[in-house]
């Protein structure tokens, strides 16, 4: 495994290096040092202490989002119990997990194995999406937010609704036949298909709802004030409208799955947990 340790304490880094054993290890004392290394090779697992006297985890997350890397690292955040709720807000489009110290060796090894599997999947999906950059530019012009902006605005919207004590619902959409459709249509027509899908998605939500690209072949809709029933109806309407289009004379159609979840009024729950709930709902729909 290719692992980057981020900690401003050299002694702590040495202890982690010893615990990790035979893996390929790199070190960084600050988020900036970590980012510089990740810009050269982001296909790494980052083992990062969440908060020190010199930085906190949000510094690394913001740097990664600003860098807009083609492939994000998998970040394992090392926290104490008090820091755990705060660290949860670092989990989003950048994959990762939280480990509460002290971490037993079997737990660390299991987390590293899961991280490696996630990176492999992400790397494969990134290769599959080569050639659709122009399509995403078209989607942005249609009001479908790119991943980085979607994450930031979704977090801000969720926090606003939590402060005001109003509910918010999420709809997660997945193009389930992306690979097959790309093989059938080719990159150019697939880009046109994504543009049609994006225009249709935007047309079927309210003007003040957020909708954007999340990860790989998934899109996220944030519905302020919507009940679970309203969100489900919107998700179904989007799904039916997108699937109604024939993309080529050969009959290529987008197949879309939907997953829905909701944060109750005043419920303080991080975005990544809501997305995970919607993802579980989406899996059941498959």
Number of domains: 2
Rg: 20 Å
**Strand neighbour order, sheet with most strands:** 2-1-3-4-5
What is the CATH C-level name of the largest domain? Alpha Beta
Task: Work out the helicity level.
Answer: 40-55%
Q: How do the SSEs run, as a string of H and E? A: EHEHEHEHEHHHEHEEHEH
Structural class: alpha/beta
Average predicted confidence as pLDDT: 85
Going by CATH, the architecture of the largest domain would be: 2-Layer Sandwich
> What profile does the largest beta sheet have?
5 strands, parallel
Strand content: 15-25%
Poorly predicted sequence stretches spanning 5 or more consecutive residues? none
CATH level-4 homologous superfamily of the largest domain: Reverse transcriptase/Diguanylate cyclase domain
Task: Give me the count of strands.
Answer: 9
If helices are DSSP runs of H or I spanning 4 or more residues, what is the number of helices? Answer: 10
Terminal CA distance reads: 32 Å
CATH third-tier fold name of the largest domain: Alpha-Beta Plaits
Q: What general outline do the C-alpha atoms trace?
A: globular
């Amino acid at each position: 495994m290719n692992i980057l340790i981020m900690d401003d304490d050299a002694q702590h880094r040495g202890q982690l290096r010893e615990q990790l054993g035979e893996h390929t290890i790199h070190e960084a004392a600050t988020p900036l040092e970590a980012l510089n290394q990740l810009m050269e090779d982001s296909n790494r697992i980052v083992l990062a202490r969440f908060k020190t006297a010199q930085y906190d985890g949000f510094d690394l997350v913001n740097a990664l989002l600003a860098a807009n890397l083609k492939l994000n690292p998998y970040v394992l955040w090392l926290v104490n119990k008090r820091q755990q709720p705060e660290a949860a807000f670092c989990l989003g489009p950048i994959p990762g997990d939280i480990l509460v110290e002290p971490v037993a060796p079997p737990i660390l090894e299991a987390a590293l194995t899961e991280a490696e599997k996630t990176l492999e999947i992400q790397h494969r999906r990134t290769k599959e999406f080569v050639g659709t950059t122009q399509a995403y530019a078209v989607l942005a012009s249609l009001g479908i937010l790119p991943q980085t902006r979607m994450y930031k605005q979704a977090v801000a919207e969720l926090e606003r609704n939590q402060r005001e004590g109003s509910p918010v619902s999420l709809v997660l959409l997945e193009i389930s036949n992306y690979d097959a459709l790309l093989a059938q249509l080719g990159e150019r027509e697939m880009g046109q298909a994504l543009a049609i899908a994006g225009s249709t998605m935007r047309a079927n939500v309210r003007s003040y709802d957020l909708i954007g690209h999340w990860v790989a072949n998934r899109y996220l809709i944030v519905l302020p004030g919507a009940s679970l029933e309203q969100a489900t109806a919107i998700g179904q309407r989007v799904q039916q409208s997108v699937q109604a289009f024939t993309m080529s004379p050969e009959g290529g159609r987008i197949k879309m799955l939907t997953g829905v979840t909701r944060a109750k009024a005043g419920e303080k729950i991080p975005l990544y947990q809501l997305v995970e709930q919607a993802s579980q709902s989406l899996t059941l729909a498959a």
